[in-house]
Design a protein that fits this description.
The protein is of the alpha+beta class and about 400 residues long. Among the domains are: about 105-115 and about 310-410, Beta Barrel (Elongation Factor Tu (Ef-tu), domain 3); about 150-280, Helix Hairpins, CATH 1.10.287.620. Helices cover about 45% and strands about 20% of the residues. The chain has five helices and 15 strands. It has a seven-stranded antiparallel beta sheet with strand order 1-15-12-13-14-11-2, with no helix packed on it. The longest helix is centred in the middle third of the chain and has 62 residues, at about 150-210. It is elongated. The two termini are about 95 Å apart.
């Protein structure tokens, strides 16, 4: 009995010592760092009673007979998980490529294009008033600047006076035509009267001739003959006056034509004067934004001198795609456009046309491939892309800005 009690005491003492050693190893309080490390690595091999085994994270005890997970098992598990993750990434990349890369063609060699309308004066003069400033939005018909108009107002008044004088001369010519026509009528009436008198005189002379000198005196016979000759001459004179009056009518009518041409010329001068006066106000041809203003108040400008430019809010994109990207590209295909200046905005458009020929062929010095050593270089072809909607007015878009178009070709 005493021997059994002694063995029980030794066993409890040994178990207590092993527990203290294990706790110190777990807490890193070993006497030697290297020994502690080796002891911790081999901690799983320490045989412990089931009542002293560590509990799982959820508070449940490990099965008393479950062996610990070895390092090789952990390595195989990690390799399996890595292979699964790589397969998932590969499948996702393939799906992304076929859905978002393969059906599209894109380029960063693309820029916004638009009309740039130069504004110039049509008449010389000094700038009296400048009504715009740099980069100002304007509407069609807005007055941009005014030229001193006093000289043109004076010239217009002179032209209007010349027109009034020409119209007065036309009225005089018309009156002269009427007077000449009246003279013609008068001369024609004189012809009729002279002709009647001539017939009467001729009849008297015939009667005198029929009776002879036996019935009338010789003097009366001679007088009747003379009167008949004079009346005949009067008829010819009256007819000559009719011709003269008709010629005067023709001359008066020619004067009317001359006066009418003078009136038309004066009217043309008046219209030109009115145009010149209207040109003293330079207006915007259409909606847009003022750019490159070089004129200042008080400047003396000449016709054709560039004063500023108007950029209308009508834009398109010229994208220089590689010729190898044009295989499936066609007019009408949808395009997504991103502007470098506004990365948060996505613009929609479509392909309008593809240039017939590479851009290098239409340069100032086109390549001569038949001379020298030839090195094949992939050429770029300009493609015109039109926006489906007009951009917002608060976006400062303009020709030359960089964009990234993406054309859906499949």
């Amino acid at each position: 009995m005493a021997q059994t009690t002694k063995q029980t005491t030794i066993t409890k003492s040994k178990m207590k010592t092993d527990m203290n050693t294990t706790i110190n190893l777990r807490n890193g309080h070993g006497a030697n760092g290297t020994a502690d490390k080796d002891a911790r690595e081999n901690l799983t091999a320490v045989e412990m009673p089931s009542t002293l085994r560590p509990q799982a994270a959820n508070g449940e005890k490990h099965p008393s007979g479950a062996p610990p997970i070895s390092g090789a098992s952990r390595k195989r598990l990690r390799q399996t998980l890595a292979a699964i993750a790589a397969a998932v990434v590969a499948v996702a990349a393939g799906v992304y490529y076929h859905q978002f890369v393969l059906p599209f063609e894109s380029t960063d060699d693309a820029f916004i294009e638009g009309h740039v309308e130069p504004i110039a004066s049509q008449v010389p003069g000094r700038v009296a008033e400048l009504l715009i400033t740099d980069n100002q939005p304007v509407k069609a018909g807005d007055v941009l600047l005014k030229i001193d108009s006093r000289d043109y107002e004076t010239s217009l008044a002179q032209d209007q006076a010349d027109l009034a004088a020409a119209r007065s001369q036309l009225e005089q010519a018309n009156a002269q035509v009427k007077a000449s026509q009246a003279k013609v009528a008068q001369a024609q009436a004189a012809v009729v009267a002279a002709d009647a008198e001539n017939r009467r005189a001729a009849d008297d002379f015939k009667r005198y001739q029929s009776v002879g000198t036996s019935a009338v005196s010789r003097s009366a016979f001679d007088l009747a003959q003379s009167i008949a000759g004079v009346d005949n001459a009067n008829v010819e004179a009256a007819r000559s006056q009719v011709k003269a009056a008709e010629a005067e009518v023709a001359l008066s009518e020619a004067g009317v034509k001359t006066a009418n041409a003078a009136v038309q010329q004066a009217e043309a001068k008046v219209r030109q004067g009115e145009l010149n006066l209207s040109y003293t106000q330079i207006i915007a041809p259409e909606d847009g934004r003022v750019t490159r203003r070089v004129v200042e108040p008080g400047s003396y400008i000449q016709p054709g001198q560039s004063l500023m430019a108007i950029v209308p809010r009508h834009y398109w994109v010229i994208a220089n795609f590689k010729e190898t990207q044009l295989t499936h590209m066609r007019a009408g295909q949808p395009v997504e456009i991103k502007v470098d200046a506004y990365p948060g905005h996505n613009f929609k458009g479509h392909v309008e046309s593809i240039q017939s020929g590479a851009g290098a062929r239409f340069s100032l010095f086109p390549p001569e491939n038949a001379t020298g050593n030839y090195i094949k270089v992939v050429q770029r072809v300009p493609v015109k892309i039109v926006l489906d909607e007009t951009p917002e007015s608060d976006l400062a878009l303009g020709p030359g800005m960089s964009v990234d178009p993406k054309v859906r070709v499949k």
